[in-house]
Design brief:
This is Nitronate monooxygenase. InterPro entries: Aldolase_TIM (IPR013785), NMO (IPR004136). Keywords: Flavoprotein, FMN, Monooxygenase, Oxidoreductase. This protein is α/β, with parallel strands linked by helices. A hairpin with a 7-residue loop joins strand 9 and strand 10. The termini are far apart. The structure holds flavin mononucleotide. The site of flavin mononucleotide (FMN) has 29 residues, from strand 3 and strand 8.
């Protein structure tokens, strides 16, 4: 289903039917998932960090292209502070450019030093930030669009912890480039709300964790469906690397370590937060351990469905929200009583 009346800078840039992007998901957004999103009419990104070997990333990009039926897709490059030594970001961008990928989603830190590589290759840069102030900075270094994710988001909400509603409205005042809003978005009515505040689209992650094409164990998806917006926990704020994740044994342990020892370091936490535990949970379905990023949009995660069906539901919900708004417009204008 297409919504031609929802034409925005985001739909035009990516050639998609509704202004929704599925943000990169560490260990999860592979060629199967990203191409399913593309075929469903939205934009998505392979997470480069999930394929640390250059040949593996190259192969995943090629596989994705072959599955996309000509639809656009991109690569997510998270430039978060490295937990292990070795900086390969520039090489990753060169590989992406070599493969002719046109779109990237960057996150984690200011992409300024990589902008020459990206712009020389004609790559369109969407930079994702956790706060409007970083969006203003990203705009000043020449990114094409920004995505601002609020405190409700799964993954990294940053340090400011400003909510999505405030980000959506303040961004309109402070930015001149197109922006997307994310964090807690999982219902079509929220797409309309974001557009009405000035956004050109939304970014979602948590809502898609039950997509049929997502390569994760059925028990993991079952836990996502069972969990509600009350089942996440914020950890690692004390080490300036805040994460919102499914509340489980790992988040409880990490939160206690942070509480008991204000001087705790990221290295102290590493045995618990290592990405390998999360990866294992996706493979085995044992969600009791690992930092399993998930946000308040768990509220909307109710069944395992193909990506196309989730997008269809979002579209119908967006339509219903628009109908509610136009019904309001037909009511006589408000007049103060004498
Ligand atoms: C399981 C999971 C893994 C994620 N991994 C990444 C990542 O590797 N890189 C990144 O930039 N964002 C990552 N994110 C953030 C999403 O791309 C997206 O910005 C976020 O989920 C939007 O908020 P929402 O979860 O409230 O929809 C992840 C989110 C989740 C839920």
């Amino acid at each position: 289903m297409t919504l031609p009346f929802l034409t925005t800078a985001v739909t035009k840039t990516y050639g998609i039917s509704i202004p929704v992007i599925a943000g990169g998901l560490m260990w999860l957004s592979d060629a199967d998932y990203v191409s399913a999103a593309a075929r469903a009419g939205i934009m998505s990104f392979i997470t480069a960090a999930s394929f640390p070997e250059p040949d593996a990333l190259r192969a995943e990009i090629r596989k994705c292209r072959s599955l996309c039926d000509g639809a656009a897709f991109g690569v997510n490059v998270s430039m978060l502070p490295k937990l292990v030594p070795g900086e390969k970001t520039a090489d990753v961008f060169r590989l992406i450019a070599d493969e002719g990928v046109q779109f990237v989603e960057t996150s984690g830190r200011n992409p300024e030093e990589y902008m020459p590589i990206l712009k020389d290759a004609g790559i369109m840069v969407l930079h994702k930030v956790p706060s409007v102030r970083y969006a203003v900075k990203a705009q000043s270094v020449g990114v094409d669009m920004v995505a601002i994710v609020g405190a409700e988001c799964g993954g990294h909400p940053g340090m400011d912890m400003i909510g999505t509603m405030v980000n959506a409205a303040t961004a309109a005042e402070r930015l001149t480039i197109p922006y997307l809003i994310g964090g807690g978005i999982g219902h079509g009515s929220q797409i309309i709300a974001a557009l009405s505040m000035g956004a050109s689209g939304v970014v979602m992650g948590t809502r898609f964790l039950v997509a049929k094409e997502l390569n994760a164990h059925a028990d993991y998806k079952a836990r996502m469906m069972e969990a509600t917006e009350r089942d996440t926990q914020l950890i690692m704020h004390s080490v300036r690397n805040t994460v919102r994740a499914l509340a489980n044994e790992t988040t409880a342990t990490v939160a206690k370590m942070e509480q008991d020892n204000p001087g705790v370091t990221i290295s102290d936490l590493l045995p618990h937060i290592s990405g390998q535990h999360g990866r294992a949970a996706y493979a085995t379905g044992d969600t009791s351990r690992g930092v399993l990023s998930a946000g308040h949009a768990l509220a909307f995660v109710d069944k395992v469905e193909p990506m196309a069906q989730i997008v269809d539901r979002l579209t119908q919900e967006a339509n219903a929200a628009l109908a509610r708004l136009s019904a309001l417009q037909s009511i006589a204008p408000y007049q103060e009583s004498a």
